[in-house]
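Retro notes, structure queue

What went well: the backlog is down to a handful. What didn't: a couple of records were mislabeled last round, so from now on we paste the full input next to the output in the thread. Example, using Protein MAK10 homolog from Gongylonema pulchrum:
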Amino acid sequence: MLEAVLYRLQFIRLMLLSLSLLAVSPAGDEGPSAAIDFRPSLDECAVHIKFAHLLLHKIRSTVHLGLQPPNSRDDEDYGWLPSFEPDVNRRQLPATFPRKTKMKSRLEGIECFEKLCLKILSITTEMPSKLTNIEDIIDFLRTYSLTDSCVLSRSLLQLVLFPRDDRLMGRTPLSSVIIESIRLFAAPAILDPTSTALTDEQCRTCWNEFVNDSVKVFLSVIQMFGQNLARQREKIINCIEDFSALHTEESSASLSLTSFVLLHTLSLIRYHFYLSFYLDLFAPFEYPYVYWYLGGVVLKWLVNTFDRSVTLIAAGEKRSIAFKTFHFSTALFYFLYSLTVTSTK
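Corresponding output:
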């Protein structure tokens, strides 16, 4: 019996310790400077959360040692416990909530804790390799929210990604990640060191404004994945409108980034359709034109966007090769010229 109690105390301690290693303490006991300098400790948290997950197996095997409901019933609302009153806060519940709360049994609660441990473990092990570009970040967030996520796990992921500002894990600015994604997908001339666009003051100003606005738009997309699936579906519409405004800004500046903006816009539209199917919101008579629009418009535009990306990257490589060839030819010319002058003397 004492070992069973010890298992539970150890589990609570490890969970609190793991959460403190991933997110800034809301109490602020260490002062504001500690919050500014906070960095998530993923490796140390992974060790603690693995041990906590192992303790759950021992906790499950010792459930029978505690008090049991009479007549071999399920735990139900735990009203059979002398110290527990399930209806103590019923009057404080809003009218929109059910008046009778359904509670999970102890075994179901352990399953929820196991899922939570696995989600936290995925933050510490899988997430660090997904921070190189914005596409991988969004894909990880999408997958994370779709598989056994809860309010705590989604909120924790948001706090780990952005502890205090728009720096990923408090280190890398989100703007740098977006610029790298643009370089890989569109290879614009503004990022080409051989281009004259770098010397144009107006072009640099438009580029900086576009990057700053992109950070705001992608932050709203990332924050959207902290919601539940139904709320995500509602927020997607606002994100699509933000990308539409970003597309208008890009078109007026002529930065050749239409394909990049269009890619993420279409990806959100496709995800909106996915959530609609996942939440079973389509009626059977809507399937024909839903599939038509999804396959004939959205996916077709996505394929065209990827084809254009290949063309842009190929053009960027040609510019780079031409620049290197020019410099090599120039260096060779001056080398041969110096040899000629030396032999003449």
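Agreed that this is the format going forward. Reviewer comment attached to the example: The longest helix spans residues 287-344.
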